[in-house]
Sequence to fold (229 residues):
Amino acid sequence: QVQLQESDPGLLKPSETLSLTCTVSGASIGNYYWTWIRQSPGKELEWIGSIYYGGSANYNPSLKSRVTISTDLSKNQFSLKLHSVTAADTAVYYCARDPYGGNSPYFDHWGQGTLVTVSS
Amino acid sequence: SYELTQPPSVSVSPGQTARITCSGDALPKKYAYWYQQKSGQAPVLVIYEDNKRPSGIPERFSGSTSGTLATLSISGAQVEDEADYYCYSTDNSGPPRPVFGPGTKVTVL
Fold:
């Protein structure tokens, strides 16, 4: 079955860069769209961005200036970089699969999530 | 920016039907999806494309839409259905932008 596992970035200080990797098993990175979503302590879910292998990434306009999502087919992984983090970026970060992408994106398999804390 | 609106909480007695609504201006043209999230766990897809159930989701979960309103119904609610439920859809302008509703806490007691 499809499984996704986020890496654990630990504690970050303000202005640092958040780097996360999602390792996928049971599905090929090359065949689907892949997404990062985060959930704030207040429980709001926020789409960060999505990517299709070999294609360009789409980002949430509110984060676009700070976000990069990329894929690594050889490792069957995809990654997130969020630059210049602040306390407002403290959240649980999830990676997820989007089976269709295009005009009807949604997320059918999720990782367990990893807590990212930004604090000085 | 596009928003989806849900009630903060819904309470239901075991065996009764819980209904959770989600309002959004683009719902007449865009599919609605529903996610269940239990405490400390990742969200789980329970309804996709307005009214379809993924494999493994109990039949008591159903979805419907009417105009700008989508509804998730839990028929014969069970204690294990107690969770946060999020509706999800996309906006109707330009490239589709994923949007989640604020979530509804369902209490079964």
About this structure: The two ends of chain A are 40 Å apart (CA to CA). The interface with chain B takes residues 35, 43-47, 50, 58, 60-61, 94, 102-108, 110-113 of chain A (CB under 8 Å).
